[in-house]
Amino acid sequence: GGARGWAGQLGGGVGGGASGGRTRALLDAGKAGLWRMEGGEFPFRGGASRGMSDAFVAETRKLTWDTAAVGVQSVRERRTIVVRGADTRPGVGALQGAYRDEGIRTACLVPLVSHDQELGVIGLYHTRDREWPYDEVALAPAIPHPDAAALPTASPHPSPPEPGPRTPPTPAPSSPLTP
Q1: Which residues, 6+ apart, have CB-to-CB distance to 10 below 8 Å?
Q2: Average pLDDT over residues 140-167
């Protein structure tokens, strides 16, 4: 159970029907992580991961709501963000060195939001350049994560500052990260 059950599903065999093939393609990421939101100055806490080093997870624990990082932006804006060239492209943000050290070339960050509360973020990472077609990016928020309901902690956390207008999930291969 718990987040480990979700992480076990990252290995494949998830999804069926027409979207099953696309879901399996999403989960084909060589590395993946689930970060849950908690209170305090450093709200990102690792819940489960596959293929991620302890050093990478430690770097994510340093993130604040004000950090210029793709995962923070994804949660703040409540939209899926895809970044190609995460290890080299200018403007990727605070975790670019960690992406490089981890061998991550493409990152897809999917916010987990329920009842207007930020619960966490899923990171799907590829060690190769990977194009994310719009239908896969749009499908990413529907990845089965049966334990997401267990993500809220006993102590509520403050929400990030209000995001701008809601936008549909879109790949962001060429736009630099906005602080």
Answers
A1: 27, 29, 32, 50
A2: 47
